[in-house]
Amino acid sequence: MRSKWVSGAIALLVATALLLTSCGPKKAEEAVKVRIGEVTRSLFYAPEYVAVAKGFFKEQGLDIELTTTPGGDKTMTALLSGGIDVALVGSETSIYVQQQGSGDPVINFAQLTQTDGTFLVSRKAITGSFDWNSLKGSTFLGQRKGGMPQMAGEFTLKKHSINPQKDLNLIQNIDFANIATAFASGTGEYVQLFEPQASVFEKQGKGYVVASFGVESGHLPYTVFMAKKSYIDKNSAVVQKFANALQKAQNWVQASSVEDITEAIASYFPDTDKEIIKSSVKRYKDQGSFATDGIIDEQEWNNLQDVMQAAGELKQRADYKALVNNQFAEKAKQTVK
After folding, report:
1. Cβ contacts of residue 88 below 8 Å, gap of 6+?
2. Backbone dihedral angles phi then psi of residue 280, each to the nearest 5 degrees
3. Number of Cβ within a 10 Å radius of residue 10
4. Residue among 24, 25, 207, 30 at smallest CA distance from 125
5. Contact 58, 31 (CB under 8 A)
6. What is the homologous superfamily of the domain 118-217 according to CATH?
7. pLDDT in tens, 228-287
C-alpha cells in the first residue's frame, strides 16, 4: 500500500514538474552579435554611442562589438575580408569599391551623419564675418587626399572661387592623427579640423573656428552604416533590428539636451573634458550634422558625387539604387517612436 502511495506521489511530482516547465517562461533568445568597425572614434558619431549606451541595440536583441579601425581603407578592408559585419564610414568608400569591380557590392543602409564634420580654424582671432578671400596666399593644412573631409573642403573652397592647388599653399600629406599636432607646432595659418580638437584649440587659445565646412558643403551621406550585399541578404532581420535601434537613438538625440547627450556618450571619451564634449556636441547639433533618420535620399547622394567629381576622385557616377538600400531605414522611421 505504501509502495503504491509513493509511486503515485512521485508520478504527481513528475507531472507537476512537467506542467510547470511547459507553462514557465521560455528561455530568452540568444542575442545576435554584430561586429561594427567605425572609421574613427569621434564625437561626430554621438548617436551611435547613444544607441549602445542607452541599450537600444540590446532591446533589439543585438550584441554589439564596436571596434575602431582607423582610416577608410582599413575599415573597408575589414568589411570585405569578413573581419566585421557592418562598417561606419563615408559613403564614398562604397563607390570606390564598386569602381574596383567588386562582385559583392557594399550597400549603404543607414545614415548617421548628414554633413561634413570639419571646421576651418584660424591661427589668429578674426573680428566680424569671415572673408574666404583671406585664405588666398595662405598656408592651409588640409585633410588626406581622396577622403571625404578633404573633398568637402576643396568643394567649399571652389564654391568661394578659390583654387586649392593654385591660390594657396595646400598641405595634405600629414597623417590624420597628426594634423592637429602639426598645426599646434606652427605649421599653417589655417587648418581643417574635426571636433573636439577645434574646441580644444579655442580653449587653449591656439586657434579659432571661423567657418564650418559642414554648413558650406550642404547635406550629403557623410557617414553611413554599410554592409556587403551578401550579409544583408542573409541577415535582413538583423539589419532591420539594427536600423530600429539606430532610429531610436536618433530620435533620442533630437529630443535631448546637449547636457544629456554629453552624459550618455562621455564614457566613450574618457580623456576628453566634459565641457569640450558639450561644446562639440552643441556645434554638431546646432548645424544639423546628426541625421534625424537613416534614410539616404537621392539628392544627398548626388551632392556627394558632385563633391567627389569636383575633387577629381570619381571615375564615373555611381547608380544610387545599386549602392543604397533604404527599406530598413524607412521601416524604422515608420515604426520606431
Report:
1. 36, 37, 38, 39, 45, 48, 75, 112, 223, 224, 225
2. -65, -50
3. 10
4. 207
5. yes
6. Periplasmic binding protein-like II (3.40.190.10)
7. 999 999 999 999 999 999 999 999 999 999 999 999 999 999 999 999 999 999 999 999
Give per-residue pLDDT as tens, 135-174: 999 999 998 887 888 889 999 999 999 999 999 999 988 8
- Residue 147: how many CB atoms within 10 A of its CB? 22
**Given this model, what pLDDT does residue 101 score?**
86
Domain boundaries, the chain: 32-115+220-335, 118-217
Q: Using omega within 30 degrees of 0 as the cis cutoff, is the peptide bond preceding 196 cis? A: yes
Q: Name the CA dihedral angle for 253, 48, 118, 107, rounded to a multiple of 10 degrees.
A: -120
Would you list the DSSP string of 292-335? Answer: SSS---HHHHHHHHHHHHHTT--SSPPPHHHHB--HHHHHHHHH
3-state secondary structure of 116: coil
Q: How far is CA 47 from the centre of its chain?
A: 8
CA 176, 189, 92, 333 dihedral sign is: positive
Q: What is the DSSP letter of 324?
A: B
Question: 256: closest CA among 28, 68, 50, 20?
Answer: 50
Q: Give pLDDT, residue 144.
A: 82
Residue 278's φ and ψ, nearest 5 degrees, are -60, -45
CB-side neighbour CA atoms (13 Å) of 280: 28
Q: At what angle do helices 46-53 and 236-255 cross, to 10 degrees?
A: 110
3-state secondary structure of 163: coil
Contact 251, 294 (CB under 8 A): no
- What's 139's DSSP letter? E
Q: Kindly report the CATH number that applies to the domain delimited by 32-115+220-335.
A: 3.40.190.10
